[in-house]
Amino acid sequence: MTQYINKTSMVKIFNNKVGTFLLIILVTAWSYDQPYLRFVQEKQYPISWCIFPFYLISFGFLSLFYFGIIYINSDVPFMQHANMYQVIRTGRKKWAAGQIGGIFIRSFVITLLSAVIAILPFMGKLELTNEWGKVVYSLASERIQFSEFILENNLEFRFNYEILEEFTPMQLMVITILLCTFICTFLGMVMFVLSLFAGRVVAVSGALVFVVLLFFVQNAPEVYKRPLAHFVPTYWGEVALIATPGSAGYYRLPSLTYMFSFLIIAILAMSAIVLFRVKHIEFNWENEDA
Hints:
The protein is an all-alpha fold.
């Protein structure tokens, strides 16, 4: 089974859709990093390698990231003609389990590569330690937040001081990568389940609903953000804000325990639905690439 999941994952990772997504992330990262790159060059200090969690605070980047995940998973229900021979060799349940494992591994690899791409423009100017360093602390301080640097640059993301006090760079990066992996897997499984019952169009539409809900939580009154966020996993990508209260003093995210528990239970439940469903449907194979 492990060998089959690995083989399925390779097919899901090495394809044109993933390549297009990573290219878009690279172009976006180059644009987002430029103001900070100039700041680093001016101050002659390296910047922390833990940049990706702060990217996800940007509503524009977070939305782009999720649209990319939906685009990559638009090959659901994975009934391209090439998969027909896999079903014949392995059986329906093993095939479905391979697809589920492939969704998870692809989600992890894509999240990890996105985190690496976020720091590529800073290569040679990175502080490779488990400390935040002078640059990030300076950029997160109130002195910088209201300085000419903010006024003169079109910043797409910012550093939040509270999270620097709560976690080390390694801790925050591990939490972010794991959480985003589960969120992306959640979206992929939502699409897989819906596609088995109602087809690809409904699957894509269902995943897009969670991106739209992200917009509603983002713009909700501060007092309602945290209660609403309990039911919108896409909002949890902003995990770097978990220690930062809003202007009225309200926190906006559920606890890490709740977020991970919700996602794991939901993914397992949807996996059970998939394994049950594939035993009772007629497979309609498509002549198209994965």
